[in-house]
Specification:
It is built from eight helices and eleven strands. It has 274 residues and is an alpha/beta fold. The chain has a single domain, classed as Alpha-Beta Barrel (TIM Barrel), CATH 3.20.20.
């Protein structure tokens, strides 16, 4: 798939423009009771604010069974002109009740949903992979082979990236450039980041957030180190808003209002350009 599949149809990658590469407009999980992102009016306002500051695209990583509200994503994209990429896939087991109805046909479910979704979201475990992760990644690889859709991976605490690459890109033969490794800011280990980057995979740094603020201050060190090592084209930045409270503190507009200018300045300081 050379095009990017948005909720309104396929577009060339260059039309993404300024892109929030990992976020959530809608999200519901038993792991965060009472903190659901399910207010369509609030989501619309958030996207309008993002667009007013120059934001052009949002990749929503909310996967199957977690309240994606595809119809609302379509409405918001039409109302704002912002491209929205939706996801299929599965998160960790703790975000679901029973999966018995789809567990043995995950690849089939993912493939069907990729008629309107633009990526497959899966999840690793802390410093490794459990049986749930291996099963969902196997199904994701099968769906990728049929559709060409990229696979975005939640790395728990920013860990386990090498194990993910060993499975997805090694045994399951997914091309590394079709894999996005998320949450790397949560484990600011530059040596590990460089090892992951050398594979050819994309590296996603998301936040800042109240939940993971302890590592926010290392973000620019991590980005600068990867830029110096020649991996600027593999870097993605997103907001990863997962609760209603996070929508305003700091919200996805922070990416364009403060983080994007700071990142551009850092690249210029390194002689890379904007």
């Amino acid at each position: 798939m050379n095009a990017v599949r948005t909720v309104l149809g396929d577009i060339p990658p260059e039309e993404l423009g300024i892109c929030d590469a990992h976020d959530h407009l809608f999200l519901r999980t038993p792991a965060l009771p009472g903190q659901e992102l399910d207010d369509a009016a609030a989501a619309l306002v958030e996207v309008q604010r993002f667009a007013a500051l120059g934001g052009q695209s949002i990749v929503q990583w909310t996967p199957h069974g977690m309240g994606r509200q595809w119809d609302r994503l379509v409405e918001i994209s039409r109302a704002t002109g912002v491209h929205i990429v939706a996801a299929t896939g599965l998160h960790q087991a703790r975000h679901y009740g029973s999966l018995d109805d789809i567990w043995d046909r995950l690849a089939e479910v993912f493939i069907a949903e990729l008629s309107w979704a633009g990526m497959i979201k899966v999840s690793g475990d802390f410093h490794g992979l459990d049986d749930h992760a291996r099963h969902t990644m196997t199904a994701a690889a099968q769906a990728h082979r049929v559709t060409g859709a990229p696979i975005g991976v939640h790395l728990e605490g920013g860990t386990g990236g090498l194990a993910v690459l060993d499975l997805l890109c090694g045994r399951l033969e997914v091309p590394p450039h079709r894999v996005i490794l998320g949450h790397l800011n949560r484990s600011p280990d530059l040596g590990m980041h460089r090892d992951l980057a050398r594979s050819g995979a994309f590296l996603a740094f998301d936040g800042p957030s109240q939940a993971n603020h302890g590592t926010d201050w290392r973000l620019f060190d991590c980005l600068a180190g990867l830029i110096e090592a020649g991996h600027v084209e593999q870097l993605l930045i997103g907001g990863d808003t997962t609760t209603a409270a996070a929508r305003s503190r700091p919200g996805m507009s922070y990416l364009v209002r403060e983080l994007q200018p700071s990142t551009t300045a850092a690249q210029c300081d390194l002689g890379v350009g904007s």
